[in-house]
């Protein structure tokens, strides 16, 4: 096993003094050391030849506490692409964790390769030892390509693995609180758009009724909304429509859904749901859903605002899952985690207020608020010191 670590303990502009010797602006190293978008604290490249593990653990910031973020297992086209993805995802987690009110910085790991062919117990244990080697600076969890059962294996090698099964001290499926948090964000948007924090009498379209989406349907039906759903899995759609006759209807696909008369559109399937064509066609005046990275490209947030569509930033409203896994570190307590996820309502309102005050779209206001919280905290490694030491 070998560990290569690139460390910049504190994010400062001093790095610019060595600019002539660093890589071109477009390179991964430029993103790490120079870009305003990057400035990561530490990146660890991990290899275990015996199991075939190749992984990247990126810690964007530990200013608020141990970096927390999941492990993505994916067959990247190149190693550079994997590093780039880890850097971007880790930075996103800093923002998400900051606005979720967690005492956690942002980090993310990627394991390079096809999980269907490469994943093995040996590999996950080797990965767990790399997480252990960071001594608590990084706390891991599930992400695309990794599951609760995998985290149970990773956790055998360290104390900093969440997303485990309840039998192993974990909280299990995070989609319950994710859906609850999205519903809180939607209530906040309803308050701003229509004066009352309820979806009663509103028509909400949900694209993707998987783990999160189907829980969201229940919250909305309970609140008195009419729900229109779509999913590529016809069986999932039929089951939900049958459970709520007259309250939930279905349309053929997401393209039809966005053109259907709606008050709220909730993307709960894949990223990039809000592209130019979708924004142009939307009938809804609120967008609030669980999917990560909904804005297909920079500028979409402004197009939404220009059309009078209130966009509840994805990483703010879908933070229920990370709130849940963070709670595992303290011995999971569902009610405590739910109470924290309830605050997504206040946070979303604060973002809309800030957006109005600054004259910027809510996505920009969210980033500003997150950056403010991170900057206000004096970095400290207090959480790494042995108990009782100064
Ligand atoms: N599960 C969580 O706790 C959590 C937390 C934060 C963010 N998210 C994000 O929320 C989204 C949904 O997560 P999930 O856990 O429910 O995933 P999931 O895979 O259980 O559900 C996604 C659903 O979308 C459907 N789908 C895929 N492509 C579609 C399309 N083109 N049109 C309509 N439906 C389509 C799938 O068939 C599936 O039923 C993802 O973007 C995920 O990253 C999930």
UniProtKB/TrEMBL annotation:
Q: Which residues form the Glutamate/phenylalanine/leucine/valine/L-tryptophan dehydrogenase C-terminal domain?
A: 172-382
Q: Where is this region: Disordered?
A: 1-22
Q: Could you confirm whether the keyword Oxidoreductase appears in this record?
A: yes
| Positions of NAD(+) binding | 208-213
Q: What is this protein called?
A: Valine dehydrogenase
Which InterPro entries does the entry mention? Aminoacid_DH-like_N_sf (IPR046346), Glu/Leu/Phe/Val/Trp_DH (IPR006095), Glu/Leu/Phe/Val/Trp_DH_C (IPR006096), Glu/Leu/Phe/Val/Trp_DH_dimer (IPR006097), Glu/Leu/Phe/Val_DH_AS (IPR033524), Glu/Phe/Leu/Val/Trp_DH_bac/arc (IPR016211), NAD(P)-bd_dom_sf (IPR036291)
EC id? 1.4.1.23
Q: Give the reactions, separated by semicolons, that this protein catalyses.
A: L-valine + NAD(+) + H2O = 3-methyl-2-oxobutanoate + NH4(+) + NADH + H(+)
A molecular function (GO) held by this record is: valine dehydrogenase (NAD+) activity
Q: Which domain of life is it from?
A: Bacteria
Give the classification, highest ranks: Bacteria, Bacillati, Actinomycetota, Actinomycetes, Kitasatosporales
What the entry lists under CDD domains is as follows: NAD_bind_Leu_Phe_Val_DH
Which family is it part of?
Belongs to the Glu/Leu/Phe/Val dehydrogenases family.
Gene Ontology CC, one term: cytoplasm
Per the UniProt record, the source organism is: Actinacidiphila alni
| A biological process from GO | L-valine catabolic process
* Keyword Oxidoreductase annotated: yes
